[in-house]
Amino acid sequence: MKIDLFITCLNDALFPQTGLAMARLLRRLGHQVRFNEAQTCCGQMHFNTGYQREALPLIRKFVNDFRNAEVIVAPSGSCVAFVRDLYPKAAEWAGDDDLLREVTELGKRTYELSEFLIKVLKVEDVGAYYPHRVTYHPTCHAARLLRVGDAPLRLLKNVRGLTLVELPASEQCCGFGGTFSVKNPETSTAMLADKVQSVMSTGAECCTAGDNSCLMHIGGGLSRLQSGVGVVHLAEILASTESMSAGSSETIGAMQVSAEALL
Amino acid sequence: MTSEARLEILTRIHRAAAGPNLEIERPPIPASTRQRAEIVAQFAEYAAEYRAEVHRASGADLPALLAGLLSGQNVLIPEGFPAQLFPQPATHKPQTTHADLAAYDAVLTTCAVAIAETGTVVLDHGAGQGRRALTLIPDWHVCVVRSEQVVDSVPEAVAALQAAVLAGRPLTWISGPSATSDIELSRVEGVHGPRRLSIVVVD
Amino acid sequence: MSAGGIHPARPFPEAARDTLQDAQMRRNLKHATTTIREKRFRAVAELPDWEALRTRGAELKDAALSDLAEQLLTLETAVKRRGGQVHWARDAAEACRIVTDLAASHGAREIIKVKSITSDEIELNAALEKRGIQAIETDLAELIVQLAGDTPSHILVPAIHKNRAEIRDLFRRKLGAELLTDEPKVLAEAARLYLREKFLSTKVAVSGANFAIAESGTVCIVESEGNGRMCLTLPDVLISVMGIEKVLPQWADIAPFMQLLPRSSTAERMNPYTSFWSGVTPGDGPQEFHLVLLDNGRTDVLADEAARQTLRCIRCSACLNVCPVYERAGGHAYGSVYPGPIGAILTPQLLQLEDENANTLPWASSLCGACYDACPVKINIPEILIYLRGQITPHKSHNLENTVESIAMKTAAWIFNEPFRFEGALKLARTGQGPLVQHGAIHALPGLLGGWTSSRNLPPFPAKSFRELWREEGQNDE
Fold first, then answer.
1. Strands (DSSP E) along chain B, which ranges?
2. Fold designation for B34-202
3. Domain spans, chain A
4. Could you read off the pLDDT of C14-59 as tens digits, one per residue?
5. What tens-digit pLDDT sequence spans chain C (478 residues)?
6. With pLDDT > 90 as the criterion, what percentage of chain C qualifies?
7. What 8-state DSSP symbol labels residue B32?
8. Half-sphere exposure of B178 toward its Cβ, with a 13 Å CA cutoff?
9. CA pair distance A142, A140, nearest whole angstrom
10. Which intervals hold domain Cysteine-rich (chain A) (predicted)?
11. Looking at the partner chain, which of C324, C390, C471 has a beta carbon nearest the beta carbon of A191?
12. CA-to-CA distance for C110 and C131, rounded, in angstroms?
């Protein structure tokens, strides 16, 4: 299958290892991957913060950048949910019927990584190896908007060497919510405190999820507490294999923040 | 002023509702496919879960059961309550004041419908049930439910009550005795309504 | 005085701080929301097809709203036919005037009230007080709130923020009750004794309405304690204030709501008491009945197609109990009688998006979506939150914070519109972040972003972005 990578601006700028891991994984499964360098941002931050006028050109740009894609896969439940759920709303609210038609079609071809693996490629065992104790946080948009269900857990259960520990109150939001954490930092912190406590109670070495935005938030809290617990994107776990030296900087790349804070 | 307000509100609604009226289908409520015994048993179980005291009796045993249950009590009987079930003439008269009602220990009524899905009895305040205050002020409500009055679901009950509502009768739906969970969410039975509810299911 | 109204005194982030810093309140809230959440989950699972029921509830409400004028006229005719009187109120002041005039015309010094958020919305108690009439709240929680001179913090459990010890002290002080313990049973008994006398002696009662049936002129009150039945049955005069969106066309339409509401609100199969009445029943209950139909901003909500579904709300409070923001910030932070997710969309709309404090409410959400899943009438709250943010943003006042944010967002959009600008910006950021990075993380950011780094570190920009690495290592498969 020819897959267009939708890397998302946050991953492009801050977490390049996640995008690389996703590409490596999809190639390992025998697919062709492509990154259209014209892509930048889907417009979610603008749209959800209230800057819908500013978001519309970004939505149109996304449609242009991905118009010819066969399938679009992203390492972010949130950005995919935005494309699938809210692009049609954006078009509707703007009264643009042509855009509505296009984004509805585009939405059907856009997938979050774990649902793409389970629902489209129908693989549960991607041949990964990750010898760590891991807990999984189901991000809100993947769980409630995309309904990925247990897709990420099924993938994680098939990773060799990985010990999966259940996260208590996992369905609770971590409090990131994009600009919510900036506009309501105290409330967001109160939510984060509970999430961080839950993660630490599992005794896991790291917390994984399908979204680096949530992981940046949870990881930021874990790092501030010098907890020694890291965060790592699901794509990076699934991309890890036995042939890669375990514990290499790439494997636990996203854990670096907390690890270095401990030094 | 109110006619002016009426006109303005209606005008605003007309201006606001841009789309066409949404038509809605109202298919008839399908009758339950469950066995009657099962439905009645669930009603009894759920009513008991809401701390109603549930008794079951055959038609023949009912008078004795009621006599035993209410012996020594000052019982209020609404007009139309079947005399053969409780051999005491109706004690309720229309002029009975609220303060008079408070002097009774218990009130004994029939009901209009009972609901298995929720353990609810519904009064339509027809014969044998009395006006609303009768089942509100005395501290103990004893309600006789004939097993054929128990329906499976809430929609079935709503359908069964249609005639009473369209005739302008009030309804009181009762699920267990008065209760509150306002203090730390711990349930307390008996705030303002009858603190004791007994349901007698007659097979 | 459980007044309240819908005009927040402060912006949400500021108001939230009070509860966030109150350890007792936080514990009470967490206990309450967690308990109801778990109970609700079980109650909902018991019905065979909850999702179909939610859809039905949404459809019925939408149908009623699409034909609202006709339904209200039918309701009016039916109530009058049954001996009731109908009044129309454009706004809170008009509704208060109608109710106080009616109460005063009966020479009432006291009236008894069934818990009604609509009456709190219009600040009825304060209006009555101005006319020398005291409103006595009869719902236990409302009574607690009223005696404490407090405001409700939850639609369904207004005193959710008070624990038993606080309530015992309050009853000792205000009711002169001799309370040996703080057992809820003992506290409830004290309230029973105090209110019993009021129920038997007060001539005028005021209620809200959960639903009204147009074809039969029937009004419905759903409750637990029996205080509702007392108020609806014993006084001579009953005045019910009802938002115009509460009407349903036919009696049969009530069925799904009697399944949806109790399980969503108190997480019970059915609430202990529900009363239905149509106008006046000769010889039974109040012989004078007034129904006040209230607009107060609702027709503005109706006029907005994208947000109209807000009016489906049946005030169950399921969205509050699942909301992580509500659980931490508490009901008072919303500054309105409508707290939580539904309040965050309803309050600003009822004020035509013109109230600056209310306009901060749509941002009081992480958009986690739990409220939408819980809503028994499928109000897509997250979507409406986003919609309202878009409506409010272009008209925000030009204070420093808003201006800085607006410039930042517009600049970001300009950057994202061209990939070369994006790449350039990343390079600039990498250079610019230098002084902020310590031990591989950013611990403190200036300005608007400072709130973020007060409790979390931020990863720094890496040496190379994805697109740079891709060019070097990856390359597209063709």
1. 53-57, 75-76, 106-109, 113-115, 120-123, 140-146, 150-151, 171-174, 179-180, 188-189, 196-202
2. Rossmann fold (3.40.50)
3. 2-120, 133-247
4. 999 998 999 888 888 898 889 899 999 999 999 989 999 999 999 9
5. 334 799 999 999 999 999 899 988 888 889 888 989 999 999 999 998 999 999 999 999 999 999 999 999 999 999 999 999 999 999 999 999 999 999 999 999 999 999 999 999 999 999 999 999 999 999 988 888 889 988 877 777 778 778 888 899 999 998 888 887 888 888 888 889 899 989 999 999 999 999 999 999 999 999 999 999 999 999 999 999 999 999 999 999 999 999 999 999 989 999 999 999 999 999 999 999 999 999 999 999 999 999 999 999 999 999 999 999 999 999 999 999 999 999 999 999 999 999 999 999 999 999 999 999 999 999 999 999 999 999 999 998 888 888 889 999 999 999 999 999 999 999 888 888 888 888 888 888 877 788 888 888 889 999 999 999 999 876 788 7
6. 73
7. P
8. 26
9. 6
10. 5-82, 134-218
11. C324
12. 11
Residues in CB range of B18: below 8 A, 6 or more apart: C305
Q: How far apart are CA B43 and CA B147, in angstroms?
A: 10
CB-CB neighbors (< 8 A) of C443 in chain A: 224
Do A and C make contact via 3 or more CB pairs under 8 A? The reply is: yes
Give the integer Cα–Cα distance in Å for A84 and A42: 11
Task: For residue A131, give the nearest of A157, A161, A153 by alpha carbon.
Answer: A161
CB contact under 8 A, A53 and C20: no
Nearest by CB to C252, from B16, B26, B118: name it.
Answer: B26
* Residues of B in Cβ contact (< 8 Å) with C205: none
A53 contacts chain C (CB < 8 A): yes
pLDDT tens-digit profile of C305-316?
Answer: 999 999 999 999
CA distance A209 to A212: 7
Beta-carbon contacts of C424 under 8 Å, excluding residues fewer than 6 positions away, are: none
Q: Please, which chains are in contact with A (at least 3 CB pairs closer than 8 A)?
A: C
For residue B40, the distance in angstroms to the closest alpha carbon of chain C comes to 16
For chain B, how long is the longest CA-to-CA vector?
Answer: 66
Local structure of B141: helix, strand or coil:
strand
Tokens of A197: 């406590």
Q: Do C218 and B165 touch (CB under 8 A)?
A: yes
Query: Which residues 6+ apart lie within 8 Å of B71 measured at CB?
Result: none
Give chain C positions within 8 Å (CB) of B3.
88
Which whole-number Å values give the CA distances from A119 to A138, C4, C21, in the listed order? Answer: 17, 50, 45
| C-alpha–C-alpha distance, residues C431 and C460, integer Å | 11
Closest C-alpha among C289, C243, C35 to residue C154: C35
> CB distance A186–C20 less than 8 Å?
yes
Which residues in chain C are contacts of A263 at CB distance < 8 A? 439
Cα(C12)–Cα(C364) distance, integer angstroms: 7
DSSP letter at B20? P
C209: left (phi over 0), alpha (psi -120 to 50) or beta: beta
Cα(first)–Cα(last) distance of chain B, in Å? 57
The CA-based angle A191-A193-A194, given to 5 degrees, is: 70
Predicted structure pTM score: 0.94
The domain limits of chain B are 34-202
Pairwise CB contact (< 8 Å): C234 & B8: no
Which residues in chain C are contacts of A38 at CB distance < 8 A? 419
- What are the distances in angstroms from CA C277 to CA B164, B192, C80, C175, C183? 11, 20, 13, 33, 35
Q: Say whether the C–B interface has 3 or more Cβ pairs within 8 Å.
A: yes
CA distances, A61 to each of A45, A66, C406, C420 (Å):
15, 9, 21, 14
